[in-house]
Design a protein that fits this description.
binds glutamine, 18 helices, seven-stranded parallel β-sheet
């Protein structure tokens, strides 16, 4: 296909209907038919990127290979499509305005008044087409927020214009809610009608409606919605709650959503793809032969979205071993040496999560000490790895008050210290060590066995690092650095060889795990946890 087609996904009625999953599912179905697909998210907030946002606001900050700090939906796009995204796949209102204002300061507008229309909308369109120009057959663009929000208006106006500029190459999918009123046992279509009307007022007629529902929608109801919203019956699709997000592409395929899309673009759909690897993953997910409990220790556990990629990586890795991984979310602020045995009881593996700052840090040391001393498989990610180093310094090396200079600038043992190139940084946004960096893995180590490779590339998001001044002390006492940045010597992986499975990684393996390519570290960690369980029955 030499022409790029654009599919826009908007949402109505309420937020949180799963536009990201619908976008990823449509992308998956088109990809399964052999098309080159990418997915982009436009976020209507004013932050330049979500990197400065507290996880309580929007959940996890996902990091792409090129070091962009992005919305967590990009994680879904990568996990579904097994295809890397970049900065261009996540644009915020803040970024759009910054670009326009920078152009204005440069004098690029030649004395013109700079306005939302056409300047902001032009910049939005430029950013959408920029992705399409990279040779994709389909660009799916998810518009964050809900139709009717003041802040989404420029995005809606931009895609309205694009439909006319790229005649025949644009399609609009609108996702809404059909609520069920239990008292009267009725499904209600009015919110959908209103939301479509709102979209129409902005000049956009949806081509396809996806109705999120908790109950099956009858053909009569779908016909009624279609008639009120000017959409044919075959273009009204239901999205009923599924046992897993990974079932959604198949649920959409059953209703021929991908065929409808292709036909609307005037493309012959051809054979229905079998999607064998996807189905085999689901088969293993639904029919686990084993189960294992793993503790996920962090300070945001009341909001699991903060650990989205980790949770999904466990689902992928669990399926490999036909194992249901039951995550026990442990609040690190509640964990003490007095209650550790109780709170971690029944866990065959302990993962200490990434994070920032002092809150909940002592509980992380407790979890690590418990896993280390009881020979329970342990995986520490980013701050989790740094905490493993600090715990080892305090409890094995006897370095009293050892710490990271992030938590205590005047610690006598700064075993984790700020990276040299981070010292003079005052701006917080986008200034961490971000994205993919190479790591050389030492032969004969657990990490080397897990990866089966001498050189790997993993994604990062941090300012602090292992302090190499202490390396000899650690190695003598039994904690070894087994992965390094080949250019700078920065420690990327630590292990305790005498322990059955103890690994800390400065990078974030979870960002690279996908349905068809689970991450080897998570796979190995789940396997080690299963073995631990078998041996400790
Ligand atoms: N706060 C730590 C650092 O900046 C770890 C960051 C993380 O876990 N992503 O180095």
């Amino acid at each position: 296909m030499n022409q790029t087609r654009y599919i826009f996904v908007t949402g109505g009625v309420v937020s949180g209907l799963g536009k990201g999953i619908i976008s990823a599912s449509v992308g998956k179905l088109l990809q399964a038919r052999g098309y080159k697909v990418t997915i982009q998210k436009l976020d209507p907030y004013l932050n330049i990127d979500p990197g400065t946002l507290n996880p309580y606001e929007h959940g996890e900050c996902y990091v792409t290979i090129d070091g962009a700090e992005t919305d967590l939906d990009l994680g879904h796009y990568e996990r579904f499509l097994n295809h890397e995204t970049t900065q261009a796949n996540n644009i915020t209102t803040g970024r759009i305005y910054r670009n326009v204002i920078e152009k204005e300061r440069r004098g690029d507008f030649l004395g013109k008044t700079v306005q939302i229309i056409p300047h902001i909308t032009d910049e939005i369109k430029r950013n959408i087409k920029l992705v399409g120009n990279k040779g994709y057959d389909f660009v799916i663009t998810e518009i964050g927020g809900t139709v009717g929000d003041i802040e989404s208006l420029p995005f809606i106006e931009a895609i309205r214009q694009l439909k006319w500029e790229l005649e025949g190459s644009c399609l609009f999918i609108h996702l809404t809610l059909v609520p069920y009123l239990a008292a009267s046992q009725e499904l209600k279509t009015k919110p959908t009608q209103h939301s479509v009307k709102q979209l129409q007022e902005a000049g956009v007629q949806p081509d396809i409606l996806v109705l999120r529902t908790e109950h099956n929608l009858s053909p009569e109801l779908r016909k009624k919605v279609g008639q009120f919203c000017n959409v044919g019956l075959d273009s009204v699709v239901q999205s009923i709650d599924q046992p897993t997000i990974y079932q959604v592409p198949l649920a959409m395929a059953e209703q021929n959503l991908d065929e409808t899309i292709l036909k609307k673009f005037g493309i012959q759909p051809g054979e229905k793809p079998e999607m064998k690897p996807w189905r085999s993953f689901l088969d293993k997910l639904y029919n686990p032969k084993h189960q294992v409990n793993i503790a996920l220790v962090g300070k945001y556990v009341e909001l699991p979205d903060a650990y989205k990629s980790i949770i999904e990586a466990f689902i992928h890795a669990g399926a490999t071993h036909e194992c249901k991984v039951k995550l026990n979310l442990v609040h690190s602020e509640e964990l003490t040496s007095a209650n550790a045995a109780d709170m971690l009881a029944g866990c065959s593996g302990v993962l200490v999560a990434p994070g920032f700052g002092q809150r909940g840090i002592e509980g992380k040391f407790v979890a690590i000490q418990y896993a280390r001393e009881n020979n329970i498989p342990f995986l520490g990610i980013c701050l989790g790895m740094q905490c493993a180093v600090i715990e080892f310094a305090r409890n094995v090396l006897g370095y009293k008050n050892a710490n990271s200079t992030e938590m205590n600038e005047t610690t006598p043992y700064p075993v984790i210290d700020i990276m040299a190139d981070q010292k003079n940084i005052s701006e917080m946004g986008g200034t961490m060590r971000l994205g993919g960096y190479p790591c050389s893995v030492k032969k004969g180590t657990l990490a080397h066995k897990v990866y089966g490779a001498d050189n790997i590339i993993e994604r990062h998001r941090h300012r602090y690092e292992f302090n190499n001044k202490f390396m000899a002390d650690f190695e003598k006492a039994g904690m070894e650095a087994t992965g390094f940045n080949p250019d700078t010597g920065l420690v990327e992986i630590v292990e305790i060889p005498s322990h059955r499975w103890f690994v800390g990684v400065q990078f974030h393996p979870e960002y690279r795990s996908t349905v068809v390519q689970p991450h080897p570290l998570f796979e190995a960690f789940v396997k080690a946890s299963l073995q631990y369980k078998e041996e400790n029955k």
